[in-house]
Amino acid sequence: MTFFGYKPSTLILWVVLCLPALAILPALFGDDAKAFHRLLHPTGEWAARFMIIGMMASGLMLLFKGRSWPRWLVHHRRDIELAAFAYAALHTLVYVIDRGTLQRILDPLWKTEIWTGWLAMLIFVPLAVTSNDAAQRWLRAGWKQMQRLAWPAAVLVLIHWAALKNWGSWPPAAVHFAPLAALSAYRLWYWYLRPRPARPTAA
Ligand code: HEM
């Protein structure tokens, strides 16, 4: 059964992905400048959360081999990463509008917590634009290599978050990124360090 060509599970997933936006909308379209500025907090946090969940999909499939829910997550990774990009784009838009002038946007660019955010966003744009089947067919092997740029972008987001408030933001940043870091360490161990049975030597 499908609705407009989408499975019910995909539609339910998108409802869930849109839920944080519902809390954001009143301040986005209201005329309270302080509430608008405060939107940097939920938009940034949900962008990072969905990015992390999407990036954990492959590791979870490896860890919970044979279970169906990690396969479902891998199947919907693109939707989750797209939602992450939408929240990141909204976060950037709120920042730009909140700063108000080009000068006020350029002035803090040298700060670690600001240039890391911009650089991460710069990497996310081509990744989001090419996250469709047509681009995947067109770029062939290059597509996978390009998608690997998500990893340096994630490191930039981690630094961006941790460096806020004079590095006082590192605890929430570390808590959010810890599961992804642990799963990535597990994947590296699994692929490169795991003891494997010795191959029988030819007689
Ligand atoms: C486009 C460039 C970016 C700029 C200029 C920028 C700017 C900012 C600023 C000024 C804050 C501080 C908000 C506050 O405490 O008042 C912030 C917070 C944050 N940003 Fe960004 N950001 C950018 C991109 C990103 C991206 C791409 C992500 C994630 C994918 C992200 C995730 C976060 C997170 C998680 C926070 C912390 C939210 C909190 O707990 O307060 N940012 N950003």
Describe this structure in words.
It is a single chain. The model has no long low-confidence stretch (mean pLDDT 95). The chain has one domain. The radius of gyration is 20 Å and the shape is globular. Helix content is 79%, strand content 0%. The chain contains 12 helices and no strands. The structure holds protoporphyrin IX containing FE. Protoporphyrin IX containing FE binds next to helix 3, helix 5, helix 7 and helix 10.
Short description:
The protein has 203 residues and is an all-alpha fold. It is 79% helix and 0% strand. The chain has one domain.
Helix content: over 70%
Mean pLDDT: 95
**Strand residue content:** under 5%
How far is the N terminus from the C terminus?
A: 57 Å
Q: How many β-strand stretches?
A: 0
Low-confidence regions: none
Enumerate the distinct ligands. Answer: protoporphyrin IX containing FE
Structural class: mainly alpha
Radius of gyration: 20 Å
Reading the helices and strands in chain order gives HHHHHHHHHHHH
Q: How many domains?
A: 1
Helices, by number, come to: 12
Using brief descriptors, characterize the structure shown.
single chain, 203 residues, mainly alpha, binds protoporphyrin IX containing FE
